[in-house]
Structure formats: structure tokens, C-alpha cells
Amino acid sequence: MSERLEIKNVHVAVEGQEILKGVDLAIGRGEVHALMGPNGSGKSTLGYAIMGHPSYEVTEGSIELIDADGTRHDILAMEPDLRARAGVFLAFQRPMAIPGVRLADFLRHSVTNIRNPDRKEGQELMPMRDFRGELKSKMKDLSIDTEFARRYVNDGFSGGEMKRAEILQLAMLRPQFAILDETDSGLDADAVRLASESIARIGGAEMGILIITHHEQLLEHNIPLQTHVMLGGRIVESGGPELAAELHKQGYDRIRKAYPEAAAAEEAMEAERRLETTTS
Amino acid sequence: MSTDTDASSTLALGEINKYDFRTNTPSVFKARRGLDRDIVSQISEMKQEPTWMRDFRLKSLDIFNSKPMPKWGGNIGIDFQDIFYYLKPAEQQGKTWEEVPEEIKKTFDRLGIPEAERKFLSGVKAQFESEVVYGSLAEDLAKKGVIFTDTDTAVREHPDLLKEYFGSIIPPTDNKFAALNSAVWSGGSFIYVPKGVSIEFPLQAYFRINAESMGQFERTLIIVDEGAHVHYVEGCTAPMYSTESLHSAVVEIVVKKHGRCRYTTIQNWANNIYNLVTKRALAYEGAMMEWIDGNLGSHLTMKYPAVYMMEPGARGEILSIAFATAGQHQDAGAKLVHAAPNTSGRIVSKSISKNGGRSSYRGLVRVEPGAKKSRSSVVCDALILDDISRSDTYPYIEIEEQDVSIGHEASVSKIGEEQLFYLMSRGLTEAEASTMIVGGFIEPLVKELPMEYAVEMNRLIELQMEGSVG
Ligand SMILES: Nc1ncnc2c1ncn2[C@@H]1O[C@H](COP(=O)(O)OP(=O)(O)O)[C@@H](O)[C@H]1O
Ligand SMILES: [Mg+2]
Of B72, B109, B78, B24, which is closest to residue B333 (Cα–Cα)? Predict the structure, then answer.
């Protein structure tokens, strides 16, 4: 079991364009970290890079899991499925629809693989009865109707349903390290509160969590040990929970002024993106 | 959902047998390769057929000889003189289990096909050896006046019905392979469902499986009388292993006023087979005809189930799945003919191509003059799993009436990197993730299948997907 997720000097490029320009972050099991920053600053890119999205190329730096005895596992060398089996989880900002595949069938497969990391293709899945029982009770905890499990994965889900389905997966898979990318967006205030409680209950002392958010509500029951602010592909400032509160209320003007170089990088990325969208 | 397939197959097995298998075929027939009047006459003689059938065969042979090879579809590289057109069951049975290729045995394992069935399917046994005697079902059907027999028997025992319908829906002149089948046909099923009789369970072809009924040139005729209802399931999903390379069946169906017929096929041929099949149904007033057709394996499959909607209110639906992998070309599709007002049709076709396989959708919707207020919709979706595979669509629409509504949608997609990544981020291997996406792609059709077929279909897809990645 790994105790720490360590990200060092990570640079990430998409289609040859550098998006992350040297990110350092370490998360211990049982810790909550918040990651904030304006749109386009690179938060989701960090999540994808950790999970191993093939379009997000890590050009420099390292991402490792470190066991209690000091053994280091280079997850950059692993395919996404092995990273998942090693205990890493990403709740997507925009989860993908998989038409025709029922949430329950997908999740049973997923849970089986993650609980038996050595399972080979074609070997038995977790017994249906055990799986169903567990799924039902988790759905109850999250106030999700059991019918939901029969629907096709994220297919025609509302924004809120998608996010709840991601939390359900988190609850079933119980990873060691979870990145929750705007899991609060698309949820109403009550649902965010429920999500916040649920995440705290699921996580406990067992999980290291990186919460990417623009708000502070999700952090209500998940008090961050540290809050990090990303701008222009770098973490420019880290602080405590009060930093999250400040950014939620006052936005990023102070940050932009304080870090003109990162703000300029962000401007440049923005400009490039605008150029791309107008020319393509 | 997972079910115990072993149990369901055994159940299905329990329902077969008992039916009087033909065992006493006269042995004057000398099998040899090739196709000529002699062979055709001998087949007829050996089956002790009436003259009309022999004449029908001979006339069909002339038609076959006079017709050129179709120039569309796939490449048909068959030497017609190098084929056995008729083998007695005993001759087909020459093989031993040891000679059956390992790959086929493995597939049997994975599909959980019962022992007796395996031997039959691989040609080791000419018929099932199940000792299970199942009688009540057969009695029940007979009491209701249902006729369910092989077509050879029907020629002898139900000549009036046969003469009226045989070759009337698909005449030998229809196409070269219909002519071939008409000349050398053997086996297949004959079903008559009397007025108002509804058969609640799917009638399975392997109900009365024997080498006769599952030959290379089987000939099936189904007559659903007024207000009657039947669901017929042909063959099975196990790989059909045969040393002969040509399979050319004809299936004719008539659904009379307010009758309903559903015909389900899942075929999984060995890679050397040319599978060239003609299937057509006539649907009369208010009748409903559905074809559900799954095509896997084979070297080339050309199959376009058709529904001719002959009278007002008739409906036709054709749902098909094709899966083409290395060395395979699935040229499959559908045909809907609106020959009367207020008729409605639907075609849903899903194809998957992988490892250099090619699938084509070839479909025709035709609205005849006067078929006012007819409606048809065609949806064909293709999924291509890699850069070396291919998918084509040939949708033909012929409309000779103004007041109609015909819709056509086609999509071609590749397995999305984003979908793969999403599933892999949840611990599924790339192969498992692709299989799941493919399974989801065909799910709208698979859920129309009887349970045990749906389970087998999914396992087949898993098998086809194995080793496809990395
Ligand atoms: N797949 C991609 N293709 C092209 N550009 C991308 C892609 N993903 C992210 N980017 C670019 O990288 C920058 C950071 O994006 P992202 O990580 O989504 O930011 P955030 O999550 O902080 O809003 C943006 O300029 C965005 O346009
Ligand atoms: Mg984002």
C-alpha cells in the first residue's frame, strides 16, 4: 500500500504545446489538498497526466507512488489501467458516455480488477450477489435510486447525475489517491453538501484526495491540509483552508498581480487557444 | 447480466430430440464433386421426390447456369465443380474429434456448449446423442395443428402446402444463388402455424437438429396463417465447422393477415466459408415480420433479409449485426418493399470491423406507386476498431410515391480514445475496454435476442475481441 503520491517538476504537453510548466505536489494518504485556479490554468491537465491520458505527454519530471517502506513506483511507466489498479482514481470533470454499457456491468468489472490487481482478462468477475449487495448499499448512502445502475454509463445523464455517478465509483473502488475534478459542478447546493459529506466518509484516513474546485462548499467536510493555486501551468501559491475561502470570494485578481509571469503565460495560452478556435 | 449458460443450453438441448430423425436413407447415391443434371437428378431420386420437385430442381439448374455471377457485393472465388452438393449424413460423419481444430474446441469451451452438441456441430456426429426425451412440447404443437418438420419430409407429407408456396416467394430466377439452392437444396425447416395459433416459446432449429436439417443448401419455408404468431430461431451461435466452403440457403416466409413472425439467426462460420443466403418474407394485411440477423465469421457473407409489405398495415423490421475480422467480408443488409399503403418498415444495422475485416451495409428501401402513407426508417451504424479495417454503406432508396416518409441515418465511428481512457482509468485493460464498448454498441440489438442467445452473442464478441489489442 502506497503512502504518498509525489509529483515533481512535471511538464505536460498536448499536441506539442506545453501546458504544465513544472508542477510539484505531494499528497499523503489521509490528506486532503485543494487545487484552485482560473479556467484554463491547467488543473484538469494535471489530473489527466496523473491518470495517464495518452494525449497528455509528460515531457519532464516524475510522478511516483511511495510505499511505507520507501519503495517507489514510477506510475508514468504504467498504462492507465495499471495506475488504477495501483490505487489512483480520477473523477472526471466531464465523464465520457459509453452507450449500451450498463453502469452496474461496467462497475462490476472495474471493481473486480481493482480489488484483484493481478486478475487476468477472462477470469471470473466478483460474484454478482456480493456486488449487487454492496452497490445497493453504496447507492443508498449516496441517495441514488437503484434504477440508476441499469442505465448506460453517463449516456444522457444530467450534469448532476454524472457527478454522482463519479462519486459512486469512488465509493465502490476506494482508491488510495483520488483526484476529484470539479465534482461539485452541476450539483445544486444540497447535492454539494451531500457530496462533501460522502467524500469525507469515503475518504477518511484511508485516502489522499486532491479536490479541484472553484468553490469552498465541497471542502466543508474535507478541510484541506493545503490549498494550491494554479496559474499559467504552475502552482504559484499554497496555503491553508483560508486561501480557498479567499479565492472563492475574491477571485484571482490578487494572484494574477502577485505572479505577473504566470499571468502572462496564462494570457499567452488563452491567446493561442483563441487563435486556434478562430482559424480551425 | 450474467446467467448460467450451461443451464440454459442444456435446457434447450432438453427440448430437442425425440423428433423422428431420419436414419434410413437409401444408399444408392454415390457422392462426387461437381454440378450437372446427373447429380441433381440423383439427389432428387435418392430423396424419393415427386416429379414436380425433380423438374423444379432441373429447371433451377438451367437458370443457375444461365445467370452470371453477381458483380457487386464481394469477390466470389468459388469453383462450382469442386464441391460436394450432397453428402449423406454418414459420409459427413467421417471425422473424429481429434481432427477438429483446436481453435474450434476452445470456442466450444468458452461458449459452454454441451458435449453432445459439440460433436454434432463439428461434424463428428450426425446427430445428437442426448438421451433426454422431450415429448410434451411436440405433442402440444401437434395438437394445435402446427407442422414442424424438415423440408425433405414436408415434400413427402405435405405436398399441397409445399406446392403452393415452395419457390413462390423466392423463385429460382431471383438470383444465381437462389437458383443454385433450388437445384441442390437439402434439409432446412418447414413450419406451418394454423390460423390464430400462437406459439409462446421460440421454436429452435436445433430442436430437430441433424445433418439433414443443417446442410450447406438448406431450404426453409415458414407459413404463418392469419392471426398466428411464431418466433423461429435458426442455428446456434457455436462456430459452424465444415470442410465444404459453400453455404447457400434460401428462407421463404409468408405472414398472412394479422400474423406475426420473428426469425432470429446468429451465424458464426469458419473462416473458409462463402455464406450466400437469400431470405425473404411476404407480409399481408396488418401482419408483422421481423428479421434479427447476426453474422460472424465466414470468408464472405452476402445476406440481405427482405420484407415485402404486400397489403395495407403490414410492418417489416430488420435488425442486423455484422462483425468482420481478418480475412472476412460481411456484405450484409436489408430490403424493405412497400407495396401497399400505410405500411411501415424499420432497418437497424450495426457493423463492426477489426484487424483488416470489411463490413458493408447494403440496403434497399423501395416504395411502389400507390403505397401512400408508408413510413420507413433506416439506421446504420458502423464501428471501426483500427486503421486497417473497412466499412462501407450502400443505401439504395427507390420511391415512386409522393406521400411517404423515409428516413435514413448512417454513422461511422472509431472507438474513441476518450472512451477507452475513461474505462481504462477504472482498471479495465485496453482489450476489456474495447470489448465493453463494442458490446455496448450492439446492445440495442442483443437485447432483442432470447436470453441464452444474448449471453452467447456477448461471449462471441468477447472471443472475437480477444487478442485484438497490443
Ligand atoms: N486535449 C487538449 N487539446 C488541446 N488543448 C488542451 C487540451 N487539454 C487542455 N488544453 C489546454 O490546456 C490549457 C489548460 O486546460 P485545462 O487543464 O483543462 O484547464 P483547467 O482544468 O484549469 O480549466 C488550456 O489552455 C486548454 O485549452
Ligand atoms: Mg478543468
Answer: B72
* Residue at B227 is within a domain: yes
B395, B408 in Cβ contact below 8 A? yes
Task: Tell me the whole-structure pTM to 2 decimals.
Answer: 0.80
B443–A128 CB contact, under 8 Å = no
Torsion angle in degrees (nearest 10) through CA of B51, B54, B55, B58? -160
Give me ligand 2 centre to Cα A43, in Å.
5
Residue B201 contacts A where some CB pair is shorter than 8 Å: no
Query: What average pLDDT does the segment B129-156 reach?
Result: 70
Q: Does any domain span residue A181?
A: yes
Closest residue to B422, CB basis, from A54, A96, A99: A96
Say how many domains are in chain A: 1
Q: Is the CB of A87 inside 8 Å of chain B's CB atoms?
A: no
Domain assignment of residue B158, yes or no? yes
Which mutation among A19, A181, A273, A274 tests ligand 1's pocket best, with the greatest number of atoms within 8 A of CB? A19
Residue B207's pLDDT band, with cuts at 50, 70 and 90, is very low
| C-beta A160 within 6 A of ligand 1 | no
Alpha-carbon distances, residue B436 vs B383, B415, B430, B468 (angstroms): 13, 11, 10, 13
A52 lines ligand 1 (CB under 6 A): no
Question: Buried b / exposed e across A42-61, counting CB within 10 Å, b at 16+?
Answer: bbbbbbbbbbbbeebebeeb
Ligand 2 centre distance from Cα of residue A270 (Å): 14
Q: Is the CB of A42 under 6 A from ligand 1?
A: yes
Calculate the average pLDDT of chain B: 81
Q: Which residues of B touch A54 (CB under 8 A)?
A: 417, 421
Q: With cut-offs at 50, 70 and 90, classify the pLDDT of residue B130.
A: very low
pLDDT tens by residue, B354-398: 999 999 999 999 999 999 999 999 999 999 998 899 999 999 999
Average pLDDT value over all residues in chain A: 93
What domain range includes position A190? 2-95+175-279
A169 CB neighbours in chain B (<8 A) are 426
Structural domain range at position B225: 26-303
What is the distance between the alpha carbons of residues A232 and A236, in angstroms, rounded to a whole number? 9
Structural domain count of chain B: 2
Residue A276 sits at φ, ψ, to 5 deg, of -60, -45
Is the same domain home to B294 and B430? no
Q: What confidence score (pLDDT) does residue A105 get?
A: 94
- A169·B426 Cβ contact <8 A: yes
Q: In this predicted complex, what is the ipTM?
A: 0.96
Which residues in chain B are contacts of A100 at CB distance < 8 A? 439-444
User: What are the angstrom distances between the C-alpha of B298 and each of B82, B177, B271, B328, B333?
Assistant: 19, 17, 4, 6, 16
Q: Do A113 and B417 count as a contact with CB atoms less than 8 A apart? A: no
User: Which one of B270, B303, B336 terminates a domain?
Assistant: B303
- Where a domain ends, among B273, B288, B303? B303
